[in-house]
Amino acid sequence: MFGVGHSHGLARTAWTIAVALLGVSPCGAASVVAATSIAATSAATTDSLYCIGASTMQPLVAAWAKAFTARRPDVPIRVADTTHFSAAGVTAMLAGHVNCVTFAREPFPAESAALRVAQSGTPVLVPVAGGSYAAPHGTFAIAVYVNRANPLRGLTMAQLATLFSGSSDGRPLRRWGQLGLRGPWTAQPIHLYGMTPRRSNGNPPGIVNFLDRRVLQGRPWRTDLRVQTDTPGQSALSAIVQRVSQDPDGVGYSGFGYAVPAVHPVALAATMDGHYVAGNPATVASARYPLSRQIYLGLARTDRGWLSPQTCAFLSFVLGADGQQQIARNSMHFEPLTARQLRVSRQALQHGGCNPVQPPPVRPVSALPGEAYAEPDGAIRVVGYNDMRWMLEALDRQFEVTHPGVRFDLVLKGTRTAPAALAAGTSLFAPMGAEFSAAELADYRKATGADPVKFRVAHAALNPLARSSPLAIYVHRGNPLAVVNLQQLREVFARPQSIRQWSQLGLTGEWATRPIHPCGPAASTALGVYFRRHALDGQPYAVDYLGFRESTLALDQAATDSDALCVGDLNQANDKVRVVSLALPGGSEVSFGSRDDLVSGRYPLDRYLYIYIRAYNDPRSAALLCQYLRAAWSPVGQSLISASAPGYLPLSPSRVVSELRRLNHMHCGS
Description:
By secondary structure, the chain is an alpha/beta fold. It folds into four domains: 8-135 and 293-351, D-Maltodextrin-Binding Protein, domain 2; 142-285, 3-Layer(aba) Sandwich (D-Maltodextrin-Binding Protein, domain 2), CATH 3.40.190.10; 380-459 and 610-668, D-Maltodextrin-Binding Protein, domain 2 (3-Layer(aba) Sandwich), CATH 3.40.190; 471-600, Periplasmic binding protein-like II (D-Maltodextrin-Binding Protein, domain 2), CATH 3.40.190.10. The protein is built from 22 helices and 27 strands. The strands form seven sheets. Strands 19, 20, 21, 22, 23, 24 and 25 form a seven-stranded mixed beta sheet that branches. Helix 2 (30-39) packs across helix 4 (86-94) and helix 13 (389-402) runs antiparallel to helix 21 (635-643). The longest helix is centred in the last third of the chain and has 16 residues, at 653-668.
């Protein structure tokens, strides 16, 4: 055993401690009864691991166990799927039935005290993943909301502690002016809404426990806290946001998923002179947002006070590249640990008696200080497309896990910022949502004497929130046209224009002699350039082609002009227009632009996201670039891309193989 449950007497003693310190009765909550009855069927031993606790962590820990035991079948690992709360795991560990607790929150002080007494030493608590941004029950980050009318935009963590405790240097904090607001807000009262600081059993709610540790750090909650509770049909967290939305003087904490239009979250800074960080998926995943959270495994010690070798081996796997890659597939949207968080977790293992956990060996690929893309602090600058931020941050976090010492600085202000930075060498590579224009290519050649090399990393998205969409052909709702092919599109949209009437596209009756009005993106826009290159074989647009600066304007034209045949973003389709199917080569099949058609490469008007690279004389720079691209094309890299906002689609396996072959032939070797 892991230092617990050596005898029936010790188990009874531990149970007594649980009753005293955790505030439960021997016939207590259903979750406690379930945990002990299940755990009693089989106790853990020193050469096995038995985990019980939060149900939200069960699929992830089970996936880790399956992957690890495939390598180490000599280490049995079981993960219970019949409990719901971390408290059940604590009770089972106190009773001596398990040696691993899945904590979707930090342990309560009473739990830590009970475990310390029962085991003659605190269990080893190891952070194993980051919490989610806003997944329900997914250990989500905490937002601080004020009413939409409130001009407050940011707080430091010290100010937040003052706000929550209602005291600044011993003086009462009651007015917004004390937090820096001026004018009519100076004398307005602060109304703080929150959950109950302590439940009837003496423990705080999990979110309050997190805020106690992270923000208040031992200070009590303010006495005028306006407590909100769960009621039928509304959770306390939802009620907090509703109260703040109705109270101009209100402020409260909740999850980002509970936001309503009448409130806004404030940005937070870790220190008085620090950078204010708004909460969003990227800042939570990178742990830059100060109220990001983590999930943990609590491990019991052996009789000698250390973790067993088997437990050390499992945790080393969890904190390694393969274990952290598993997190990208979890349903609760937990995040891999950052490089800094991994160091803390590995130190926790060392304190538990494990040998130093070494990151997986990789070739050294750190940037040369002399390279223009290297920041003074050693970070690697990447300049380019702002809509690739989320996928690049996910790829960067994973790359930093497997390549310790490598850090990226993303300067993503738009596709058109990338070519000049790549030409100047001030960006390692150029992430772009469109290809180089003719002018950009000419400027690049002039600056470098060579061409950049383009690689595809993802398909465009079908999400209306994405900036890069596949193209589609639209007609008015009343137009009966069902399908066109690429040759017909060239003859409608390009010079010399040989298709001018609907009869030439197969329509009959009253439609036969009506004129076709071609429209779409202006020729100078990125979409206009793309359509001309890839659908019109580079030919200029027809004389009567009507070009718009925005795709939505082209769709508006199709909605109002029954003779319009328009090009526009596929993900902007609406019920005022109709998408025309595209005939595939051979004419026997058509494509509607479905997800499967896009990923497989069947859809003729698909678009891609790109990474452009340049040749580097320094072999370390080339190695860094090649390893990064290979990581982006790996199954894990492609899953990270597809799981990132706003939903760009992964490449097909055959496309990945072709891109890798091109990279290897040019620059990287095997």
